[in-house]
């Protein structure tokens, strides 16, 4: 064996797997398909001003249309951050005839941990019990109590700032002190609470630190809110700032970049993976490495791709797929701009600094009472209040000195609420391989079939009405709101495809994120999710990864795998 | 008009941008596609002078320099050549008819040529030859009409003037405030009459 463990992927969960497994004493290889990005020194645009950029930070729209038509739709994608996203033209994927799906990707060391939205919310038993309660999908084999200690561990290590609110549906965690609400948000929180005591607006729980971790070389947040450029202060959680240095410190980590995993080799006699095959993307040479256990952390869809592509006489439909559900029940939060309102009455107020998080209104529907209009799950809002700057001039007639003087002042306050609705797991939303087309490395294209259904549409319709009602109650003048979800992938919370479940006949993974069919295989990224909840999922992926690593190490020690 | 007769245009400005882009995107950039779209001629000195003047009319010199002063006119031409503000979305329907004299073969609008002709038409003579007050009046009329309409090509040009100005060093950090590393968050401060907006409030730039 070349290694004790191979971790495929270096993003949010790959970094955690590498850290946990090396710290447990294992010799680990991490394989990353993209290029190396070194912490701080490779964040090439981090300190640049717009006037130092060729297109002033806006970017070359023709280039974006040609090479980044999907990635450019990401709100974090700018001229400053384009080097942290994939080139769509060079990284194609296929879609079903009626599918609109925007797949946002970052192929590089650190993956999307460099570009993520950093929101960290625990799931509750409303979420782990959701499938059982309404019959969609398959029941989770775990509940909140199983994951709670792992949430503690992850939050403490990555650094999450947030306010404790005592909510059952959004459990409190190991938080650093919260970032503050601005004047408008404080007012809206109060007004909402006074009318709807069950609706809590609180500041985003975010992996941006309010307290430094000097022992780990990480400073507190500088309130720049340009995180996706990379942060040399190490103030937000990324692989580079946090898990990678911890893993490297053990001396037991090897990292290979520019290497895309093609398939896993399987021995039917032992039911074990015997090798990981990868393509060196620069030389196109193929190699195989071996290990006792394999962790797939390539990102939900790419982990499924590897399994679907790992066919053999024993596994003609892909590895770990005796159930036939591999690739099915993919999800993404249904997501839309539920309301925008002008918030009068705060003309005398302003703020200083750029808080790198918005606010969240925790789920309040379909908890004790089933009060969803046409849907059985939850939705929550994220957003915030902000004061306009010069770009308000783009909506205004006017030229000359008065116009310039107007744009010199902070403009009116607006408040935005973006709805995130739970996505029902459906067998028809699925990933397959399109073997008629291959990418530059000769790998078959992943094909996405995806559509939201009546439940998500009903949830976002109710969310729109609620958002308008709440902002109006807080004195706002609602100027717009939407109730149609963006295309699948818009929330960048694509997940599922290798779902967890108690029954090997209907699920891919067991309660330890371990393949039912292949005891030395663990899939601990978004692919393992059996339901979507309406919270941002990365914290849960990390907690499940840490939990799976602990279980894998225990099984190794006990000689079970 | 040939490339040889357009020496006044600072090619090196575009090419410098192209080189930086090639580095940033790690892809080779064809200089011709950076310079112009679909057989467009290079911007003439007259177009550059017009765009500078128009930029200066939109954001004039006050205690700080105006948009023309800081090169926003050239930025507009660069940005139009690269499709910013939807400049390379083909026009359809009524708009395609209205602006048919200024469309490229792919249905996209040659904004700068349209603006030159439109201002001259409104001026009844060469716009650029009019005195300041009249130029301003012509532009106010165009601007008012454009912002009363749903879609109008002036909006893209004006928006790029704003971008060119408020993302310039003077516009971004002298006319407005620019703070790359605020270092703290003060959630509620009294807004004083002398307070200036922040060009480095990225959320406000995106959503404000």
UniProtKB/TrEMBL annotation, chain A:
Task: Please report which protein family the annotation says this sequence is part of.
Answer: Belongs to the GMC oxidoreductase family.
For the keyword Nucleotide-binding, the answer is no
- The answer to keyword Flavoprotein applying to this record is yes
This protein's cofactor list reads: FAD
Which of UniProt's keywords are assigned here? Answer: FAD, Flavoprotein, Oxidoreductase
Q: Which domain of life is it from?
A: Bacteria
Residue ranges of the Glucose-methanol-choline oxidoreductase C-terminal domain? 425-544
Q: What InterPro entries does UniProt report for this protein, alphabetically? A: FAD/NAD-bd_sf, GMC_OxRdtase_N, GMC_OxRtase_C, P2Ox-like
* Coiled-coil region: none
Q: What is this protein called?
A: FAD-binding protein
- Residue ranges constituting the Glucose-methanol-choline oxidoreductase N-terminal domain according to the UniProt record: 4-333
Automatic annotation (TrEMBL), chain B:
Please name the InterPro entries in this protein's record.
Gluconate_2DH_su3, TAT_signal
Q: Which domain of life is it from?
A: Bacteria
Keyword list (alphabetical) reads: Signal
Entry-linked PROSITE patterns: TAT
Residues of the signal peptide: 1-31
Q: Does the keyword Ion transport apply?
A: no
What's the protein name?
Answer: Gluconate 2-dehydrogenase subunit 3 family protein
**Protein's organism:** Novosphingobium ovatum
């Amino acid at each position: 064996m070349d290694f004790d463990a191979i971790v495929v992927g270096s993003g949010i969960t790959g970094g955690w797997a590498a850290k946990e497994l090396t710290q447990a004493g294992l010799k680990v290889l991490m394989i990353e398909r993209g290029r190396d990005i070194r912490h701080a020194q490779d964040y090439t645009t981090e300190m640049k001003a717009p006037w130092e950029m060729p297109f002033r930070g806006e970017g070359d729209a023709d280039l974006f249309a040609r090479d980044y038509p999907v990635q450019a739709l990401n709100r974090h994608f700018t001229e400053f951050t384009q080097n942290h996203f994939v080139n769509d033209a060079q990284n194609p994927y296929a879609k079903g005839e009626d599918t609109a799906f925007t797949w946002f990707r970052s192929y590089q060391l650190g993956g999307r941990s460099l570009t993520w939205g950093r929101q960290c919310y625990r799931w509750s038993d409303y979420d782990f019990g959701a499938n059982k309660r309404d019959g969609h999908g398959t029941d989770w084999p775990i509940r909140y109590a199983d994951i709670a200690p792992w949430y503690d561990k992850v939050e403490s290590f990555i650094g999450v700032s947030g306010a404790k609110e005592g909510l059952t549906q959004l459990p409190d965690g190991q938080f650093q002190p919260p970032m503050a609400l601005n004047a408008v948000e404080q007012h809206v929180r109060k007004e909402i609470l006074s009318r709807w005591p069950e609706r809590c607006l609180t500041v985003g729980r975010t992996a941006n630190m309010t307290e430094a971790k000097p022992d780990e070389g990480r400073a507190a947040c500088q309130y720049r809110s340009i995180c996706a450029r990379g942060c040399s202060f190490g103030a937000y959680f990324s692989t580079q700032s946090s898990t990678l240095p911890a893993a490297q410190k053990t001396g037991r980590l090897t990292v290979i970049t520019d290497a895309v995993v093609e398939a896993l080799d399987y021995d039917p006699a032992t039911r074990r993976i015997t090798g990981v095959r990868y393509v060196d993307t620069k030389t196109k040479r193929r190699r195989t490495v071996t290990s006792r256990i394999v962790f797939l952390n390539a990102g939900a869809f790419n982990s499924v791709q590897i399994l679907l592509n790992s066919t053999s006489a024993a596994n003609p439909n892909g590895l770990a797929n005796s159930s036939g559900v591999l690739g099915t029940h993919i999800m993404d939060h249904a997501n839309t701009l539920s309301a925008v309102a002008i918030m009068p009455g705060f003309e005398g107020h302003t703020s200083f600094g750029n808080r790198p998080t918005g606010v969240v209104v925790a789920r309040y529907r379909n908890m004790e009472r089933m009060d969803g209009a046409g849907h059985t799950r939850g939705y929550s809002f994220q957003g915030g209040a902000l004061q306009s700057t010069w770009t308000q001039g783009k909506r205004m007639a006017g030229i000359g000195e008065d116009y310039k003087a107007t744009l010199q002042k902070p403009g009116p306050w607006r408040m935005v609420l973006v709805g995130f609705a739970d996505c029902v797991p459906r067998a028809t939303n699925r990933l397959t391989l399109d073997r008629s087309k291959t990418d530059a490395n000769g790998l078959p294209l992943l094909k996405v079939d995806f559509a939201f259904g009546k439940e998500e549409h009903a949830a976002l319709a109710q969310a729109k009405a609620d958002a308008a009602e709440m902002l109006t109650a807080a004195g706002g003048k609602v100027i717009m709101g939407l109730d149609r979800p963006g295309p699948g992938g818009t929330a960048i919370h694509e997940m599922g495809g290798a779902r967890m479940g108690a029954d090997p006949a209907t699920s891919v993974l067991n309660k330890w994120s371990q393949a039912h069919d292949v005891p030395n295989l663990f899939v601990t990224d978004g692919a393992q999710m059996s339901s979507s909840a309406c919270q941002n999922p990365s914290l849960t992926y990390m907690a499940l990864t840490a939990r799976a690593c602990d279980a894998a190490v225990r099984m190794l020690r006990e000689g079970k795998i | 008009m040939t490339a040889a007769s357009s020496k006044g245009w600072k090619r090196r400005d575009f090419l410098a941008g192209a080189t930086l882009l090639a580095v940033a995107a790690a892809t080779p950039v064809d200089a011709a596609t950076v310079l112009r779209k679909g057989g467009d001629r290079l911007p003439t000195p007259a177009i550059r002078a017009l765009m500078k003047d128009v930029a200066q009319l939109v954001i004039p010199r006050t205690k700080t320099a105006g948009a023309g002063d800081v090169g926003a006119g050239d930025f507009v031409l660069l940005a139009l050549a690269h499709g910013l503000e939807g400049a390379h979305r083909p026009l359809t329907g009524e708009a395609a008819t209205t602006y048919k004299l200024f469309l490229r073969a792919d249905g996209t609008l040659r904004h700068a040529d349209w603006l030159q002709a439109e201002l001259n038409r409104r001026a009844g003579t060469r716009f650029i030859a009019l005195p300041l007050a009249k130029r301003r009046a012509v532009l106010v009329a165009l601007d008012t009409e454009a912002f009363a309409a749903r879609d109008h090509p002036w909006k893209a040009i004006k928006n790029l003037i704003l971008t060119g100005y408020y993302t310039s060093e003077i516009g971004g950090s002298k006319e407005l405030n620019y703070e790359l590393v605020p270092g703290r968050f003060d959630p509620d401060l009294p807004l004083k009459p002398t307070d200036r907006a922040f060009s480095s409030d990225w959320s406000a730039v995106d959503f404000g």
